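Input structure tokens:
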């Protein structure tokens, strides 16, 4: 199921649930999360590439900033169901060649580059523990379906080249967080989450602004 179709279906379902809410502890909500992903052990190049880089300069990143749009339904003070669509942060690499012209001016030319980028849709069960009228703790577990595209640096036919890899799959996502009710209709949360994308362990730190329908 495509992420946007999934989100539209979830929004309709949440509105249906909200019509049956009977007290102030039952409500639908939506929100936006700003995220930073850290991709552990992400390597854009096999060891044989290191041996053949020569004078080329290799630079890479293993983290990036992304975003998530979400909708959910709070059944009571302690349990909610939530779903969302995410654009994960992008990690990348670049291989450059340094050269100096006759006047001594140094220039850098990009020879190869690539990215690790992911679109995802998720469904989660969220547990909340109120500390007081404003502050609450969170724990969540769910499933995330992802579509990943990656370019990898390889050594082929006695030369460096870039190989494209497309991968899709599902993974378990879990996390812990803390939230603060700014008002009766707005809350701010800070969450730490763990999942796996294309066999790469991924840690996410997110700040979310939630609005009650």
């Amino acid at each position: 199921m495509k992420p946007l179709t999934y989100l539209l279906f979830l929004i309709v379902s949440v509105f249906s649930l909200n019509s049956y809410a009977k007290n102030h502890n039952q409500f639908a909500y939506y929100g936006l999360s700003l995220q930073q992903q850290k991709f552990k052990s992400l390597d854009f190049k096999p060891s044989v590439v290191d041996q053949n880089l020569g004078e080329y300069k290799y630079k890479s990143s293993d983290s990036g900033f992304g975003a998530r749009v979400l909708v959910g339904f709070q059944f009571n003070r302690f349990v909610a169901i939530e779903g969302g669509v995410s654009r994960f942060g992008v990690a990348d690499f670049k291989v450059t060649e340094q050269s100096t012209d006759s006047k001594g001016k140094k220039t850098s030319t990009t020879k190869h580059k690539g990215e690790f980028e992911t679109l995802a849709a998720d469904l989660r069960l969220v547990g909340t523990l109120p500390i007081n009228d404003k502050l609450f703790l969170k724990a969540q577990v769910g499933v995330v379906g992802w579509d990943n595209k990656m370019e990898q640096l390889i050594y082929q036919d006695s030369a460096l080249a870039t190989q494209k890899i497309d991968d899709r799959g599902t993974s378990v996502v879990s996390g812990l967080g803390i939230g603060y009710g700014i008002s009766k209709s707005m809350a701010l949360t800070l969450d730490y989450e763990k999942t796996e994308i294309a066999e790469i362990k991924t840690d996410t730190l997110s700040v979310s602004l939630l609005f009650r329908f």
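The mean pLDDT is 88. The first strand starts at residue 27 and ends at 39.
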